[in-house]
């Protein structure tokens, strides 16, 4: 015990100092700060982390998780995190993280597509992706509504949303050679592109969305006409061959042209998404300007071969309508077959012309126009099938006045009203030819032939007689005649000798005549003397004294 | 019980300095503190509030362990790629790319060691609080291990900070420390502090003989 005490004695006393502070609770601040810091870090992480979006594509070609970037105007704004097949296995769902600073770019109408090297008819794009892989391009819209699930486009949009211009909707019967990206032309100037094409739900047509860039969009008016400028327009109709193209590019790729008719240049500007009709050709587009039309039926009883739907209805060379339908109608008795041809008639084409001349208001009401037409028909206004081109055999319908036509009236009771017709020119020609033939047939050819034979026989006899006569002449008369002629020649020869200048008869005659002239001169001198001196007859010539 | 003296300095009213090891007799007055007569270090019979301080630091490190492992530790950008790695994804990347040894080192130093420290300290604290009389030498050894291994966890932080400072070749290669680096650094420092705050003498206290 003492040992221990001794040891204890050797142990020094601790130095004593005043306690400055005494707190053990302060240490709990540390975990609180730690909690705060970690919370801050986590919160910051989630704040810095942009939205995560899902884009679905048809294929995942060129997309790699963790590598494929999302770019806007070639600036990276995100990265693909993962790729998965959708539940129904039809699509590929790409999950991508968008950077915080770019989260505003992701809105409801943002469009996504995979940028790959693409070579199409009119452009080569995305060659850069051959080097560093495909990326997902985006196009930002105007919406601010956030959205986190998108459907990716299969090809880049033709027009970015920030390009000024307007979109329009076209309704077409066929797509022709058009495609998304096909170009829009205005006076052969490339002014826009086709954005999308979609078959109508009822399958009866197509709806195309097109984009016309500013400033060209101002030329799209409410009355603007659009037509297919696709490829080559090669038509063969009553007007003959026609070959039409827009530009070399459209021959290869197709396109759409539009124009605003001159007489409608003051029309209102078409608002965006105005719907237009896309006509198959420029000609069709121009034709369709007639919004007012009337339907008539023309009943023909002759062949309508060569007459096609769309064939022109022509009034003295001016197209005033077209054929819309060709039917076949059997008479109730089955005795005859008629061809009712329906036409669409544009009365405005007549009106416009007359209006420009004398400004008179033409009959606008239907009763007035009926009256007018009735009057015209009374004067011989008829329809007729005519051959447009002998080469192609195409036919058209001509409206004209035929004063000699049989009287007829318009049958207004039928729908559409029936306009009287006359047989076609070829038909008429054929008919008259037929008549001639028929008349010829009626001639008593047999009798005529018999008569003719008789006549010929007697003629034959007569000729034989004549031959005999001639033979006689030949044998008896000709030698005599030759003798006579020889005599005559001799006579003429002697006459020639007698009459020649150095013949003695001539010389004598000349002398005689000279004498005679002298005698006449002296006779004249005598008569002059006697005139001056008539007494000389009694007294004789007085001698000069 | 051999090697397990039931006598302790505290039971005799002595206190050893944990810096120079000198045993002295402290004056056990609550209003004053005792200093080592040799090196003037504050003397504690037992570190004051050791357990609660250790718990607090341990809790803080456990809290920070979560962001340290889930957030991004390092961002590396090169000409052809741009990566953001958490510790675990970095380990996976290293493992997949064939650097198994480095992956193992990083995994042990950055994930296993901090976790081991936190669990070990928690075990020690709980056993001390329950005044457990079992496994006393083993627990002491465990404590020593925790103290010794603590600094090696900083390896990862050093790598990241060094790389971030050195690899700054714009557009060619770039390394940036992520938010997890801060959290991870804090975890390492806090576990070290917690280990320091723990008084290993407490492990032995349950078996001491009370001063008669």
What is the number of helical segments of chain B per DSSP (H or I, 4+ residues)? 7
Largest interface: A-B, 28 and 45 residues
Distance between the termini of chain B: 20 Å
Shape type of chain A: elongated
Across the major sheet of chain B, the strand order is 6-5-8-7
> What's the count of strands of chain B?
8
- Helical stretch count of chain A? 11
- Secondary-structure class of chain A: alpha+beta
Shape verdict of chain B: elongated
Number of domains as seen in the coordinates of chain A: 4
Structural class of chain B: alpha+beta
- Low-pLDDT stretches of chain B: none
Uncertain segments of chain A: 353-361
Tell me the helix content of chain A.
25-40%
Question: What is the H-and-E element order of chain B?
Answer: EEEEHEEHHHHEEHH
Q: Report the portion of residues of chain B in β strands.
A: 5-15%
Biggest sheet features of chain A: 8 strands, mixed
Task: List the defining traits of the structure above.
heterodimer, A: 545 residues, alpha+beta, eight-stranded mixed sheet, 11 helices, 27 strands, elongated, B: 212 residues, four-stranded antiparallel sheet, 8 strands, 12% strand
